[in-house]
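Quick illustration for those who missed Monday's session on complexes.
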Amino acid sequence: MNTEQLMGIALDLAGLREVPGDSAIYQEGNGIRRVLIGIDARSAELTLAKMLGYDAVIAHHPIGGSATLNFHTVLGRHVDQMTTAGVPEELARSILAEVAESRRVLYSMSNYDHDPSVARLLKMPYLNIHTPLDEVGRRRMAAVADEVGAEATVGDLIAAFYDTFAEFRHAATRIEALVGAADRRVGRIVVSHGAGTNGGYPVAKAYFDHGVDTLVYIHCRPDDARRLEREAGAAKTLVVTGHIASDSIGINPYVARLRDEGLDVTPLSGILSP
Ligand SMILES: [Fe+2]
Ligand SMILES: [Fe+2]
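Prediction with fe (ii) ion bound:
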């Protein structure tokens, strides 16, 4: 297998036709049989892979190169998710334009070639797959939310997440209602994920202002959660499922696919067993 095929399988799982801006092949390679995959995989893991005889390293989070410099382009996926949920397109676009510009400037400050340069020196095939696997995770969690339905409580939803996904049961973090409370009715729900990163306060507020009762994020900054609690917490609920567990839910179907293809895959760096 080659690096392009490794990327292609993920695109296929997510139903995407193009490599999104936050995913990239840093060092191409072929004849790949043994793969090291991590939520984060950088220079240390590249060196480890070389020492232990792996043929390729796959990271989930963007590492550098175009995946860092073009990361902001995938934030536009929030606009699709928001308009589908009933947020006016003009409002969604204006919120995301600001969020994306901040990310663009922030990430342009980074040393985008540090880890890719190590992969080149080691001649270690190296890629990261971010949005495709988060999209897989989003769909899986959204399917559970659909099944639970609007009349259930947020507590029922959280219980269904634990029942369905061993990753949540294996996690050292817990699923929590950071805004609102678990005894509320779920009502209209959106799982907001698979769009680069969470949209923070402004995206959540727009959902709440336009009829969404329960919003699911995989993580949320405390300042954003506190502000949402003050402004919307009396009626709305934000469920945070946990970063590493939720990333694992998107990554594990991909690991299973690679194994089906005959590859020897070692997960590390946070990937929880399914
Ligand atoms: Fe992720
Ligand atoms: Fe992540």
